[in-house]
Please model this.
Amino acid sequence: MHVREVRRATRALCALGAGSGKRVCLIGFNRPEWVTFDLASMCAGGAPAGIYTTCSPDEVQYVAHHAEAPVVLVENAAQWEKIRARRAELPHLKHVVMMRGPKVDDPMVLSWEQFLARGDAVEEHRVDDLVAALEPQGLATLIYTSGTTGPPKGVMLSHENLAWTSALLQRLVGGAADDVFLSYLPLSHIAEQMATIHGPITSGAAVYYAESLDKIGDNLREVRPQVFFGVPRVWEKMHATIMTKLAGATGMKKRLVQWARRVGTASSALSMRGRPLSGALAVQALAATPLIVAGILRSARGAKGGVSLAKLPEEIKLSEVIQALEGSLAPVECINNPAVCSRSRTCVTRDVWEELKNAMNGVLEAMTLRDLVERQKKKELPGKPMYYI
Model:
């Protein structure tokens, strides 16, 4: 369905004179129309240029004029007003397209439906011809800087640049067709474009769009993404929220969180030094990860594996942990190197599990996480005692 709309939008841009060699601008929060318009411009042989929603009318005018955009996509009436206020200083601008919903009564403005309908006059095969004519080194998109050291500057990125970067991210992050992403950071930035547009196109993942920045928490719990991309400020706010909630934790919940944090700290220290996890710490790390995720997002990986997040440590069978692990490990000596493992987020090797299972004569799989801790205290497992609940 999305492919069909992108193709129709590509034909519409051609009909409006914004095809090969032309640039278009986009102003708005993350929505499907933003991505459709962006991809349509590239398919048509042009180049999209996003503008931050926080930009002033003067800043919007500068970028749109510098890009010589004949068509601009805007989210709502507030963003349209920025264009309207400077339309006399935008000689290249011919059309403004509104995203779905808002209506503006102006001869220059087209609704989303009117915009798509313009493409009906262009033959379908024109899209295939335009895409076939694209060159790897050709201009794909313009990313304008924030302008902190003067006027914004347009960074020219090629099709090959976008494709190469996206492919590399798939190797590092391990994207898959059944992954889910939540789009919420400004799409005017190349980082969010990779997370929302190019990465999911490469892996086939699904993308959900946040309702607003204020509802990210609710949307995270609803969407339950496998991968969540954030900038430092987002992590700081999330950390502050979590710490506030944890301050009121008591009893078993408090002890469980403290244990999981200790395991996470130790595991991260080893991973950052390029050392694989082993022994009981490996088991605890794999078990602690979904528990922490549950506390933050109340989410799970779904059918791809993972431990039930509704269980307490004494109820979690290590057979569940092992099953989840073996469904994601690559058959290599150590998967700490992301270049050789496309799925696992935890640095554990198959031989670690074989060592543990052999040491326990097959009893390990029937144990619970609490059993593991107790046997670890008694030094009945390989490796020195580590972290206890």
Summary: Strands lie at 23-27, 47-51, 71-74, 95-98, 109-110, 139-144, 154-158, 180-183, 206-209. Residues 297-316, 320-349, 382-389 have pLDDT under 50 and may be disordered. The chain is about 45% helix and 10% strand. Residues 232 and 238 are 10 Å apart (CA to CA).
